Q: What sequence folds into this?
């Protein structure tokens, strides 16, 4: 397992994708090389400028660019901590603990029909995972869900990796309705990887069982430490309560009690 | 050279910086971040006779300058600790302390009896102050009689250093400290978390599955410093201070209030290297102010 570290990073760029979402592109402040980062892993970011926001914020890794030594974090404004992170400016410094958690597991066969399903900010880890899958000779497709077309994030980047299907609740882009009703699910999917709001992931898990697909989900339980010390982020599994930060965040649905 | 060493009863620490139980796992979780031999001592997760699953999620809520937790002593039980965890961590060049919890006095005694087989374990910390369990825990720590009963029973089963961890959720913590001192405790550590509660007003639900939980972090520090200062004046045994220590400055506050050693807790979640920095700070402080040993600073207030 790669050694975990607490490292100062410099914001190379902060792209405001919408009112709700910003993309932070970060590089180690001292120029050192990024540790090996697996798709599905996450980081813990210390929120600067906010004395009363004490705990770090867990953020999944959206992309790694080894050639530029940068890591991408997609931040949704959900409160004071993430608001501050989403408002950082280029040149600012943040302390990050990484790399944390397990990773998505590679599909058994290169011929497997693979669908990566993301909802809201849950699309974040799927971009990096999709890229790694493609680099390793797999052919991932994506199913992205949102309330409305304007909430679909990084569409053009996903399209560079593989075919993108989409569902919006208002029908303004792709198929109208929830991702679990998207027609792509009837096309013989072998492996599903899903990240999004818990109700969505639970519905996808039901659908995966129905169509007989392997399914991994990435959970985002509230965390304090991110390294398995505080036991706050536990998820009930067939083996009892386990830490999402160390045993996860990625779980095969057969290990969960959903 | 500054002498940072301190003694807690017969337990010798190379410096006064320890890690608070439940915030540092079994130590190994932090081995990537700094050299664990820098620690004066490390207090491992609360250990009970039988395995415990702990409380349902959500168990944590961030609050202003602090956090509430309701983990509920999740652990795999004392036998698992002895057989699986202890062999992995007993070589860390620092003093290991096991935090012992129980629902019944007999459970505390039995855990201590089993821990007695571990050669490299010189001290235990008896937790009579966990606010997150239905039975035992804080129930023992909020009355002088309960605190005294547990201490007396454990004292008979454990002949090495015995630290008793006290609850702040009492009217007068010095009375509890005196009660456990009278039954043979070698030291007291304080404070455990303060009972608190937070509500998600949008959902109109409590933030924790257990409704109430234990508050820790810098929000509680002034209360902890005050209680340590009062307790130091009330007992003759060493007092270990904890509660919201986020950096070396905060640790020094406890030492000046009279603490012999300190425990760093919640800060480990924020900065996994914080304990290393606290040790450095204490050494630098002594040099900066012309003290040759940390003991000279103890209780100057």
A:
């Amino acid at each position: 397992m790669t050694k975990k570290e607490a490292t100062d990073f410099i914001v190379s760029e902060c792209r405001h994708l919408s009112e709700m979402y910003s993309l932070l592109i970060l590089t180690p402040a001292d120029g050192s090389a990024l540790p090996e980062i697996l798709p599905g892993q996450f980081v813990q970011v210390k929120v600067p400028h906010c004395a009363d926001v004490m705990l770090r914020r867990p953020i999944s890794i959206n992309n790694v660019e080894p050639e530029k030594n940068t890591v991408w974090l997609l931040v949704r404004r959900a409160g004071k901590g993430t608001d501050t992170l989403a408002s950082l400016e280029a040149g600012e410094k943040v302390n990050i603990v990484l790399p944390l958690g397990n990773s998505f597991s590679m599909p058994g066969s290169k011929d497997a029909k693979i669908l990566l399903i993301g909802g809201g900010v849950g699309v974040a880890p799927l971009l990096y995972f999709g890229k790694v899958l493609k680099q390793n000779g797999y052919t991932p497709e994506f199913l992205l869900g949102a309330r409305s077309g304007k909430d679909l994030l990084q569409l053009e980047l996903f399209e560079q990796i593989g075919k993108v299907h989409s569902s919006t609740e208002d029908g303004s882009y792709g198929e109208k309705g929830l991702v679990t009703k998207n027609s792509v699910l009837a096309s013989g999917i072998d492996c599903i990887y899903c990240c999004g709001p818990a109700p969505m992931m639970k519905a996808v898990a039901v659908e995966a069982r129905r169509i007989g697909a392997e399914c991994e989900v990435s959970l985002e339980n509230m965390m304090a430490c991110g390294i398995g010390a505080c036991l706050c982020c536990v998820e009930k599994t067939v083996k009892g309560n386990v830490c999402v930060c160390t045993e996860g965040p990625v779980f095969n649905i057969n290990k969960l009690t959903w | 050279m500054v002498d940072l060493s301190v003694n807690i009863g017969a337990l010798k620490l190379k410096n006064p910086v320890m890690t608070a139980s439940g915030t540092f796992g079994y130590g190994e979780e932090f081995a990537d971040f700094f050299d664990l031999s820098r620690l004066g001592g490390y207090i491992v997760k609360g250990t009970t006779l039988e395995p415990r699953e702990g409380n349902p999620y959500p168990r944590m809520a961030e609050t202003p300058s602090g956090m509430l937790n309701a983990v509920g002593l999740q652990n795999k039980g004392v036998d698992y600790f002895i057989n699986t965890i202890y062999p992995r961590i007993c070589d860390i060049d620092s003093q290991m302390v096991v935090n012992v919890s129980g629902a019944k006095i007999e459970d505390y005694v039995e855990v201590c009896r089993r821990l007695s087989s571990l050669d490299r374990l010189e001290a235990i910390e008896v937790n009579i102050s966990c606010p997150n369990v239905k039975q035992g825990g804080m129930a023992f720590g909020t009355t002088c009689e309960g605190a005294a009963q547990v201490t007396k029973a454990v004292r008979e089963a454990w002949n090495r250093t015995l630290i008793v961890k006290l609850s702040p959720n009492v009217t007068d913590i010095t009375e509890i400290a005196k009660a456990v001192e009278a039954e043979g405790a070698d030291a007291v550590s304080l404070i455990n978390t303060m009972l608190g509660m937070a509500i998600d007003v949008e959902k109109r639900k409590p933030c924790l599955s257990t409704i109430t939980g234990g508050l820790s972090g810098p929000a509680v520090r002034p209360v902890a410093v005050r209680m340590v200062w009062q307790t130091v004046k009330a007992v003759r045994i060493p007092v270990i201070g904890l509660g919201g220590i986020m950096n070396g400055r905060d640790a020094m506050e406890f030492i000046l209030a009279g603490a012999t050693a300190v425990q760093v807790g919640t800060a480990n979640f924020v900065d996994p290297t914080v304990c290393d920095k606290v040790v450095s700070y204490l050494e630098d402080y002594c040099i900066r102010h012309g003290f040759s040993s940390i003991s000279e600073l103890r209780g100057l207030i």
